[in-house]
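Tip: read the tokens left to right.
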């Protein structure tokens, strides 16, 4: 197999792995969004400083996962562009 073809298969495998990581991160984001909704509701109802702190923490978790998903998508888009360039050369 030629070098470009091997590289193409490697990139395709990396894209598949990123898609799976993205899917898992999206599922985890949904979980954290539910926790965040509950924490915000508890903080609004109780007014307890501990509940407000918990709401801040869960909001930070949601933001962290959203950033992680954005990074995965960016990395995947870069690999897809690289794959397309390789395909054009074949």
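Filled-in amino acids:
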């Amino acid at each position: 197999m030629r070098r470009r073809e091997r590289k193409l298969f490697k990139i395709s495998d990396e894209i598949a792995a990123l898609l799976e990581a993205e899917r898992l991160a999206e599922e985890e984001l949904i979980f954290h969004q539910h926790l965040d909704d509950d924490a915000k509701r508890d903080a609004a109802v109780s007014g307890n400083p501990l509940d407000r702190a918990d709401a801040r923490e869960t909001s930070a978790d949601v933001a962290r996962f959203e950033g992680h998903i954005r990074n995965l998508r960016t990395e995947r888009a870069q690999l897809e562009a690289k794959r397309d360039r390789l395909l054009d050369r074949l």
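Residues 3-46 form the longest helix (44 residues). The mean pLDDT is 95.
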